[in-house]
Amino acid sequence: MLTWMGRYQPLVEAIIRHTNIYSRFSTNKPITFEGIQLSVTGWQILEYIYEHEKDDMRMIYLSERLCIPQSSFSKQIKILDEYGLIDRYQHVGNKKNIIVKPSPKGRKLYEEYAASFTKEFWHSFFDALEPVSDDALQTFVDALEQLNRSLLNDNSPDVLVKLEPKRHVPPDEPSSRKP
């Protein structure tokens, strides 16, 4: 057992395994439902738009909230728009801040998809969490959000950093060593 993780080692390992499996799943398996093929990210964006329909959230905020790079987010929005699953809005006098909402078609499709997807993927996960109290569940959510902030360096100032060319040798190792 790695001593720095202490009793959390099994949890850290499970999180890392989940992250790796989810990453592989989300990038390699588009999900087709009712003839509409979206990536996992596309379905997540549609879900978040659906869930926050009344909030008039700007696209930039949605992208940041979901931690999806703006370019990837814009690509997914374009696909959702082409399928007719979202409607775009803007406030009078502000053409920069685009607000997206589910279209009636998008709302209906998401509701049907969620009912099917929940049964297929999430049901056993929720069953496993049933004995956990709401307070304990919230503590776990808070801990994961803190981990996310740490990984994203959200507590550091936004500083411009020059990107260096990719090297085969890590910068802290002598150049005589080969990978």
Short summary:
The protein has 179 residues and is mainly alpha-helical. Helix content is 55%, strand content 9%.
Could you give a short account of the major beta sheet? 2 strands, antiparallel
User: Beta-strand level of the residues, as a percent range?
Assistant: 5-15%
What gyration radius follows from the Cα positions, in whole Å? 20 Å
CATH topology group of the domain at 19-122:
Arc Repressor Mutant, subunit A
Structural class, from helix and strand content? mainly alpha
The strand order across the widest sheet is 1-2
Give the number of helices: 6
- Can you tell me the overall shape? globular
CATH class of the domain at 19-122: Mainly Alpha
Order of helices and strands: HEEHHHEEHH
Strand-helix topology:
Blueprint: H1 9-28, E1 31-33, E2 36-38, H2 40-51, H3 59-66, H4 70-82, E3 86-90, E4 98-102, H5 104-129, H6 134-152
Antiparallel strand pairs: 1-2, 3-4
Helix pairs in contact: 2-4, 2-5
